[in-house]
Amino acid sequence: MTDPNRHSLTEDAQGLAFGAGMAAFGIIILTHLGLVTGQTAGLAVLISYATGWGFGPVFFAINIPFYWIGYKRMGRLFTLKTFIAVGAMSVLTMFMPNWVSFEMLNPIFGAVLFGAVSGVALIVLFRHGASLGGIGIVALLLQERTGFRAGYTQLIFDAGLFMIALFLRDVPTVAISALGALIVNLIIAINHRRDRYIAT
């Protein structure tokens, strides 16, 4: 009999696929507009802009050191799911530009769309016991240990990252980008509540 308070393997598989797919789509929106974001993805985006390297390989490489933290603090299953989600997202961002393009996308609306899509993607991954690595692992750990919301931890990290972004992008671009990042973090802060969602 299936435990109603736990996700099945099939449910986890679709959750990881959806979360990674939507997160990759969010990055396509972001990079199409030349915007930036926070968290580990934001760091990978900035490195990609500065070096010309592809986002996917950079994002995958940045996350490698964090798997040890995830394994030690969050367990083997969480780390495995996160590795799968990060790998899938990294690969998808390499292929998606061949599958979707934008004839016209308003930067402000694009930032809002990125924030909404990415926020929902992260919520799905969190609820299936995964993350997109990096600061997300640290944020979830702090929430589990102290109750300090994961979204707020990421908001603090983002503030520092956006200061760096000002050296690589103009002020209007960074300001529009901040709107998207704010939406991502508010979605997580408001919706990621274990007392309202019990399945793991």
Automatic annotation (TrEMBL):
The keyword Phosphoprotein does not apply. GO terms for cellular component: plasma membrane. Its main location: membrane. It is found in: Cell membrane. Keywords: Cell membrane, Membrane, Plasmid, Transmembrane, Transmembrane helix. The keyword Transmembrane helix applies. The lineage of its organism: Bacteria, Pseudomonadati, Pseudomonadota, Alphaproteobacteria, Rhodobacterales. It holds the Pfam family YitT_membrane. This is YitT family protein. The chain crosses the membrane at residues 16-35, 41-66, 78-96, 108-126, 147-168, 174-191. It is a multi-pass membrane protein. It comes from the Bacteria.
